[in-house]
TrEMBL record:
InterPro entries: FAD/NAD-bd_sf, FAD/NAD-binding_dom, SQRD. It comes from Rhodococcus xishaensis. Gene3D superfamilies: FAD/NAD(P)-binding domain. This is NAD(P)/FAD-dependent oxidoreductase. One of its GO terms (molecular function) is oxidoreductase activity. Residues 4-123 form the FAD/NAD(P)-binding domain. Signal peptide: none annotated.
Protein backbone atom coordinates (compact mmCIF):
# COMPACT_ATOMS: atom_id res chain seq x y z
CA UNK A 1 0.00 0.00 0.00
CA UNK A 2 1.42 3.37 -1.02
CA UNK A 3 2.20 6.01 1.57
CA UNK A 4 2.13 9.81 1.62
CA UNK A 5 4.84 12.02 3.10
CA UNK A 6 4.11 15.73 3.42
CA UNK A 7 6.86 18.35 3.64
CA UNK A 8 5.83 21.79 4.86
CA UNK A 9 7.92 24.69 3.54
CA UNK A 10 10.19 25.06 0.50
CA UNK A 11 13.13 26.74 2.16
CA UNK A 12 16.57 25.17 2.41
CA UNK A 13 15.48 22.37 4.75
CA UNK A 14 12.21 21.57 3.01
CA UNK A 15 13.67 21.47 -0.50
CA UNK A 16 16.51 19.22 0.66
CA UNK A 17 14.14 16.90 2.50
CA UNK A 18 11.76 16.57 -0.46
CA UNK A 19 14.56 15.82 -2.91
CA UNK A 20 16.14 13.25 -0.59
CA UNK A 21 12.77 11.63 0.15
CA UNK A 22 12.19 11.08 -3.56
CA UNK A 23 15.48 9.16 -3.70
CA UNK A 24 14.75 7.15 -0.56
CA UNK A 25 11.11 6.14 -1.10
CA UNK A 26 9.54 3.80 -3.67
CA UNK A 27 8.08 5.44 -6.76
CA UNK A 28 4.51 4.56 -5.74
CA UNK A 29 4.79 6.59 -2.52
CA UNK A 30 3.58 10.15 -2.78
CA UNK A 31 5.70 13.10 -1.64
CA UNK A 32 3.87 16.41 -1.24
CA UNK A 33 5.74 19.69 -0.80
CA UNK A 34 3.61 22.65 0.29
CA UNK A 35 4.75 26.27 0.20
CA UNK A 36 2.96 29.60 0.03
CA UNK A 37 4.85 30.82 -3.05
CA UNK A 38 7.82 28.62 -3.99
CA UNK A 39 9.95 31.75 -4.19
CA UNK A 40 12.74 32.34 -1.72
CA UNK A 41 16.42 33.17 -1.34
CA UNK A 42 19.47 32.29 0.75
CA UNK A 43 20.19 34.38 3.81
CA UNK A 44 23.69 35.15 2.56
CA UNK A 45 22.20 36.59 -0.63
CA UNK A 46 20.07 39.05 1.35
CA UNK A 47 23.23 40.64 2.73
CA UNK A 48 24.57 41.11 -0.76
CA UNK A 49 21.29 42.73 -1.79
CA UNK A 50 21.75 45.03 1.21
CA UNK A 51 25.25 45.89 -0.02
CA UNK A 52 24.00 46.47 -3.58
CA UNK A 53 25.98 43.60 -5.07
CA UNK A 54 22.83 41.69 -6.05
CA UNK A 55 19.32 42.57 -7.17
CA UNK A 56 16.31 40.74 -5.73
CA UNK A 57 15.72 38.93 -9.01
CA UNK A 58 19.32 37.71 -9.19
CA UNK A 59 19.02 35.83 -5.89
CA UNK A 60 15.50 34.41 -6.25
CA UNK A 61 15.10 30.67 -5.74
CA UNK A 62 12.11 29.40 -7.74
CA UNK A 63 11.91 25.60 -7.74
CA UNK A 64 9.67 23.98 -10.35
CA UNK A 65 8.46 20.51 -11.24
CA UNK A 66 11.64 20.12 -13.30
CA UNK A 67 13.66 20.78 -10.15
CA UNK A 68 11.83 18.17 -8.10
CA UNK A 69 10.63 15.40 -10.43
CA UNK A 70 8.27 13.03 -8.70
CA UNK A 71 7.28 15.52 -6.02
CA UNK A 72 3.78 17.04 -5.91
CA UNK A 73 4.23 20.78 -5.38
CA UNK A 74 1.22 22.55 -3.90
CA UNK A 75 1.16 26.33 -3.64
CA UNK A 76 -0.87 27.15 -0.56
CA UNK A 77 -0.66 28.67 2.90
CA UNK A 78 -0.41 26.02 5.62
CA UNK A 79 -2.90 27.04 8.30
CA UNK A 80 -2.73 24.21 10.82
CA UNK A 81 -1.55 20.69 11.52
CA UNK A 82 -3.70 18.10 13.31
CA UNK A 83 -1.44 15.48 14.82
CA UNK A 84 -4.32 13.23 15.93
CA UNK A 85 -5.93 12.90 12.50
CA UNK A 86 -2.58 13.23 10.70
CA UNK A 87 -3.83 15.95 8.41
CA UNK A 88 -2.54 19.30 7.21
CA UNK A 89 -4.96 22.15 6.53
CA UNK A 90 -3.84 24.39 3.69
CA UNK A 91 -6.73 26.40 2.32
CA UNK A 92 -8.42 25.23 -0.89
CA UNK A 93 -5.88 22.41 -1.32
CA UNK A 94 -6.49 20.83 2.09
CA UNK A 95 -6.94 18.85 4.16
CA UNK A 96 -4.09 16.57 3.13
CA UNK A 97 -3.48 13.37 5.05
CA UNK A 98 -0.01 12.03 5.75
CA UNK A 99 1.74 8.89 6.92
CA UNK A 100 4.82 10.93 7.86
CA UNK A 101 5.41 14.67 8.10
CA UNK A 102 8.44 16.96 7.86
CA UNK A 103 7.90 20.46 9.24
CA UNK A 104 10.26 22.98 7.63
CA UNK A 105 8.23 26.17 7.92
CA UNK A 106 11.06 28.36 9.12
CA UNK A 107 10.75 31.44 11.29
CA UNK A 108 8.64 34.51 10.57
CA UNK A 109 9.17 38.18 11.39
CA UNK A 110 7.00 39.70 14.13
CA UNK A 111 7.65 43.46 14.02
CA UNK A 112 4.71 44.15 16.34
CA UNK A 113 6.55 42.49 19.24
CA UNK A 114 8.82 45.52 19.74
CA UNK A 115 6.60 48.55 20.47
CA UNK A 116 7.11 51.33 17.95
CA UNK A 117 9.04 49.23 15.44
CA UNK A 118 6.21 48.89 12.94
CA UNK A 119 5.65 52.66 13.07
CA UNK A 120 9.39 53.27 12.56
CA UNK A 121 9.37 50.99 9.52
CA UNK A 122 6.27 52.69 8.12
CA UNK A 123 7.84 56.13 8.70
CA UNK A 124 10.96 54.95 6.81
CA UNK A 125 13.32 55.83 9.67
CA UNK A 126 13.97 52.09 10.07
CA UNK A 127 14.56 49.27 7.63
CA UNK A 128 15.18 45.51 7.82
CA UNK A 129 17.27 43.15 5.70
CA UNK A 130 15.53 39.81 6.31
CA UNK A 131 13.52 39.98 3.09
CA UNK A 132 14.86 40.78 -0.38
CA UNK A 133 12.57 43.78 -0.69
CA UNK A 134 13.60 45.05 2.73
CA UNK A 135 17.31 44.60 1.97
CA UNK A 136 17.04 46.47 -1.34
CA UNK A 137 15.10 49.30 0.30
CA UNK A 138 17.61 49.60 3.16
CA UNK A 139 20.45 49.77 0.63
CA UNK A 140 18.80 52.83 -0.92
CA UNK A 141 18.35 54.49 2.46
CA UNK A 142 21.97 53.91 3.44
CA UNK A 143 23.04 55.42 0.13
CA UNK A 144 20.99 58.56 0.81
CA UNK A 145 22.38 59.24 4.31
CA UNK A 146 25.07 61.91 4.24
CA UNK A 147 25.71 62.22 7.96
CA UNK A 148 24.54 60.88 11.33
CA UNK A 149 24.32 57.46 12.93
CA UNK A 150 23.17 54.09 11.65
CA UNK A 151 22.18 51.70 14.42
CA UNK A 152 22.16 47.98 13.59
CA UNK A 153 19.79 46.55 16.19
CA UNK A 154 19.02 42.95 17.09
CA UNK A 155 15.51 43.44 18.48
CA UNK A 156 15.22 40.01 20.14
CA UNK A 157 16.65 36.50 20.20
CA UNK A 158 16.54 33.95 18.66
CA UNK A 159 16.95 35.11 15.06
CA UNK A 160 18.09 33.63 11.76
CA UNK A 161 21.75 33.71 10.70
CA UNK A 162 23.67 34.60 13.88
CA UNK A 163 26.39 36.48 11.98
CA UNK A 164 23.98 38.51 9.84
CA UNK A 165 23.62 41.66 12.03
CA UNK A 166 27.37 42.06 12.27
CA UNK A 167 27.89 41.34 8.58
CA UNK A 168 25.27 44.02 7.94
CA UNK A 169 27.26 46.51 10.03
CA UNK A 170 30.44 45.74 8.07
CA UNK A 171 28.69 45.94 4.70
CA UNK A 172 26.87 49.16 5.57
CA UNK A 173 30.21 50.72 6.48
CA UNK A 174 31.65 49.38 3.22
CA UNK A 175 28.79 50.90 1.22
CA UNK A 176 29.16 54.27 2.96
CA UNK A 177 32.81 54.43 1.97
CA UNK A 178 34.32 57.85 2.71
CA UNK A 179 31.22 58.93 4.63
CA UNK A 180 32.04 56.16 7.11
CA UNK A 181 35.84 56.39 7.15
CA UNK A 182 35.70 60.18 7.59
CA UNK A 183 33.32 59.86 10.54
CA UNK A 184 30.43 61.65 8.83
CA UNK A 185 28.27 58.55 9.40
CA UNK A 186 28.79 56.29 12.41
CA UNK A 187 27.78 52.63 12.52
CA UNK A 188 26.98 50.89 15.82
CA UNK A 189 25.67 47.37 16.51
CA UNK A 190 23.42 46.56 19.50
CA UNK A 191 22.36 43.09 20.62
CA UNK A 192 20.72 41.48 23.69
CA UNK A 193 23.57 38.94 23.76
CA UNK A 194 26.77 39.80 25.62
CA UNK A 195 28.85 38.98 22.53
CA UNK A 196 28.16 38.27 18.85
CA UNK A 197 27.33 34.66 18.02
CA UNK A 198 27.35 33.57 21.69
CA UNK A 199 26.68 29.89 20.99
CA UNK A 200 30.02 29.71 19.14
CA UNK A 201 31.81 30.70 22.33
CA UNK A 202 33.57 33.77 23.75
CA UNK A 203 36.68 33.39 21.58
CA UNK A 204 34.63 33.78 18.40
CA UNK A 205 32.54 36.60 19.88
CA UNK A 206 35.56 38.56 21.07
CA UNK A 207 37.32 38.08 17.73
CA UNK A 208 34.31 39.58 15.94
CA UNK A 209 34.23 42.52 18.36
CA UNK A 210 37.92 43.14 17.64
CA UNK A 211 37.22 43.11 13.89
CA UNK A 212 34.41 45.63 14.34
CA UNK A 213 36.57 47.81 16.54
CA UNK A 214 39.38 47.74 13.95
CA UNK A 215 36.98 49.08 11.34
CA UNK A 216 35.47 51.72 13.62
CA UNK A 217 32.14 49.95 14.19
CA UNK A 218 30.84 50.25 17.74
CA UNK A 219 29.67 47.09 19.50
CA UNK A 220 27.16 47.24 22.36
CA UNK A 221 26.29 43.91 24.00
CA UNK A 222 23.67 43.02 26.63
CA UNK A 223 21.34 45.69 25.26
CA UNK A 224 17.73 44.49 25.19
CA UNK A 225 15.46 46.91 23.34
CA UNK A 226 12.06 47.60 24.91
CA UNK A 227 10.63 50.12 22.44
CA UNK A 228 11.36 52.45 19.53
CA UNK A 229 10.23 56.08 19.25
CA UNK A 230 10.12 56.81 15.52
CA UNK A 231 9.51 60.55 15.95
CA UNK A 232 12.46 61.04 18.30
CA UNK A 233 14.47 58.37 16.47
CA UNK A 234 15.32 56.78 19.79
CA UNK A 235 15.60 53.20 21.04
CA UNK A 236 14.79 52.47 24.70
CA UNK A 237 16.56 49.61 26.47
CA UNK A 238 15.73 47.42 29.47
CA UNK A 239 18.67 48.82 31.46
CA UNK A 240 17.09 52.29 31.37
CA UNK A 241 19.40 53.71 28.72
CA UNK A 242 18.41 55.28 25.41
CA UNK A 243 20.25 55.57 22.10
CA UNK A 244 19.49 57.86 19.19
CA UNK A 245 19.79 57.04 15.51
CA UNK A 246 19.34 58.64 12.13
CA UNK A 247 18.65 55.30 10.44
CA UNK A 248 17.75 52.05 12.19
CA UNK A 249 18.78 48.79 10.49
CA UNK A 250 16.90 46.21 12.49
CA UNK A 251 16.77 42.46 12.90
CA UNK A 252 13.04 42.18 13.70
CA UNK A 253 11.82 39.80 16.41
CA UNK A 254 11.39 36.29 15.03
CA UNK A 255 8.46 34.01 15.79
CA UNK A 256 7.20 30.58 14.72
CA UNK A 257 4.27 30.76 12.35
CA UNK A 258 0.71 29.89 13.31
CA UNK A 259 0.93 26.50 11.61
CA UNK A 260 4.05 25.59 13.59
CA UNK A 261 2.43 26.71 16.84
CA UNK A 262 -0.73 24.76 15.97
CA UNK A 263 1.13 21.48 16.36
CA UNK A 264 1.39 22.11 20.10
CA UNK A 265 4.77 20.39 20.08
CA UNK A 266 6.62 23.24 21.75
CA UNK A 267 5.41 25.51 24.57
CA UNK A 268 6.99 28.57 22.94
CA UNK A 269 5.99 27.56 19.42
CA UNK A 270 9.44 26.36 18.38
CA UNK A 271 9.48 22.58 17.94
CA UNK A 272 11.83 20.52 20.14
CA UNK A 273 13.55 17.73 18.20
CA UNK A 274 15.91 14.89 18.92
CA UNK A 275 19.37 16.32 18.10
CA UNK A 276 20.43 13.24 16.13
CA UNK A 277 17.28 12.13 14.27
CA UNK A 278 15.22 15.37 14.13
CA UNK A 279 12.22 13.37 15.43
CA UNK A 280 9.60 15.24 17.43
CA UNK A 281 7.54 13.75 20.25
CA UNK A 282 4.76 12.97 17.75
CA UNK A 283 5.08 9.63 15.91
CA UNK A 284 6.13 10.05 12.29
CA UNK A 285 6.65 13.81 12.60
CA UNK A 286 10.08 15.34 12.05
CA UNK A 287 11.12 18.99 12.02
CA UNK A 288 14.11 20.76 10.50
CA UNK A 289 15.57 24.20 10.15
CA UNK A 290 14.51 27.47 11.73
CA UNK A 291 11.20 26.22 13.16
CA UNK A 292 13.00 23.88 15.54
CA UNK A 293 14.48 24.20 19.03
CA UNK A 294 17.39 21.78 18.91
CA UNK A 295 19.17 21.94 22.27
CA UNK A 296 22.94 21.51 22.40
CA UNK A 297 24.81 19.72 25.22
CA UNK A 298 25.35 23.09 26.95
CA UNK A 299 21.59 23.74 27.01
CA UNK A 300 21.65 26.47 24.37
CA UNK A 301 19.70 26.18 21.10
CA UNK A 302 21.40 25.39 17.81
CA UNK A 303 21.67 28.62 15.76
CA UNK A 304 19.12 29.09 13.02
CA UNK A 305 21.21 28.81 9.85
CA UNK A 306 20.86 27.38 6.34
CA UNK A 307 23.89 25.12 6.69
CA UNK A 308 22.14 23.24 9.49
CA UNK A 309 18.75 23.20 7.76
CA UNK A 310 20.26 21.54 4.69
CA UNK A 311 22.01 18.83 6.71
CA UNK A 312 18.88 18.27 8.82
CA UNK A 313 16.74 17.93 5.69
CA UNK A 314 18.80 14.97 4.50
CA UNK A 315 18.75 13.31 7.91
CA UNK A 316 15.00 13.77 8.32
CA UNK A 317 14.33 12.24 4.89
CA UNK A 318 16.28 9.09 5.76
CA UNK A 319 14.65 8.85 9.18
CA UNK A 320 11.19 9.18 7.61
CA UNK A 321 12.02 6.33 5.24
CA UNK A 322 13.12 4.19 8.18
CA UNK A 323 9.98 5.11 10.13
CA UNK A 324 7.89 3.92 7.17
CA UNK A 325 9.70 0.59 7.20
CA UNK A 326 12.20 1.04 4.37
CA UNK A 327 15.88 0.16 4.50
CA UNK A 328 17.28 3.68 4.32
CA UNK A 329 20.59 4.64 5.85
CA UNK A 330 20.43 5.50 9.55
CA UNK A 331 22.03 8.91 9.07
CA UNK A 332 22.28 11.31 12.02
CA UNK A 333 22.72 15.05 12.37
CA UNK A 334 26.36 15.62 13.32
CA UNK A 335 26.28 19.31 14.25
CA UNK A 336 29.10 20.20 11.86
CA UNK A 337 28.71 23.62 10.31
CA UNK A 338 30.43 26.66 8.85
CA UNK A 339 29.42 30.29 8.62
CA UNK A 340 30.99 33.11 6.61
CA UNK A 341 31.25 36.63 8.00
CA UNK A 342 31.37 39.19 5.21
CA UNK A 343 33.57 42.21 6.02
CA UNK A 344 33.33 44.18 2.77
CA UNK A 345 36.02 44.80 0.20
CA UNK A 346 35.83 41.22 -1.04
CA UNK A 347 36.95 39.81 2.35
CA UNK A 348 35.22 37.31 4.61
CA UNK A 349 36.08 35.42 7.78
CA UNK A 350 34.89 31.86 8.33
CA UNK A 351 33.63 30.26 11.51
CA UNK A 352 33.55 26.47 11.47
CA UNK A 353 33.36 23.59 13.88
CA UNK A 354 31.02 21.18 15.62
CA UNK A 355 28.06 22.45 17.61
CA UNK A 356 27.08 19.15 19.22
CA UNK A 357 30.43 18.68 20.97
CA UNK A 358 30.12 18.30 24.74
CA UNK A 359 30.24 20.24 26.94
CA UNK A 360 30.09 23.17 24.48
CA UNK A 361 30.46 23.80 20.74
CA UNK A 362 34.01 23.80 19.39
CA UNK A 363 34.11 26.58 16.80
CA UNK A 364 37.06 28.45 15.29
CA UNK A 365 36.89 31.78 13.48
CA UNK A 366 39.36 31.78 10.58
CA UNK A 367 41.15 34.98 9.62
CA UNK A 368 39.47 37.03 6.85
CA UNK A 369 40.56 36.35 3.28
CA UNK A 370 39.38 36.80 -0.29
CA UNK A 371 39.27 33.00 -0.54
CA UNK A 372 36.45 32.76 2.01
CA UNK A 373 34.49 35.43 0.16
CA UNK A 374 34.94 33.36 -3.02
CA UNK A 375 33.75 30.23 -1.17
CA UNK A 376 30.63 32.07 -0.12
CA UNK A 377 29.99 33.20 -3.69
CA UNK A 378 30.36 29.60 -4.89
CA UNK A 379 27.92 28.44 -2.22
CA UNK A 380 25.36 30.90 -3.58
CA UNK A 381 25.98 29.86 -7.20
CA UNK A 382 25.63 26.18 -6.37
CA UNK A 383 22.32 26.69 -4.54
CA UNK A 384 20.81 28.87 -7.26
CA UNK A 385 21.88 26.42 -9.97
CA UNK A 386 20.51 23.46 -8.04
CA UNK A 387 16.97 24.78 -7.68
CA UNK A 388 16.42 27.21 -10.56
CA UNK A 389 15.99 24.56 -13.24
CA UNK A 390 13.91 25.48 -16.29
CA UNK A 391 11.08 23.12 -17.13
Amino acid sequence: MSKTVVVLGAGVGGLTAAAELRKALPAQDRIVLIDRSFTGSLGLSLLWVLRGWRTPDQVAVRPTAATLPGVDMITSEVTSVDLETRTVECGPAGPIGYDALVVALGAGLDVSRLPGLRQALDAEVAGQFYTVEGAADLHRRVGALESGRIMVLVAAVPFKCPAAPFEAAFLIGDQLGERFTSGAVRVDAFTPDPLPMPVAGPAVGNALVSMMDAQGIGFHGSKSATSVDPQMRTVYFADGSTESFDLLAVVPPHAPGAAVASTGLGPGGWIPVDPASLATTAPGVFAVGDSTALLLPNGKPLPKAAVFAEAEGEVAAHQVARYLGYGAADTRFTGDGACYVELGGGMAAKGEGNFLTAPAPQVTLREPSTAYHAEKEQQERDWLARWNVSS
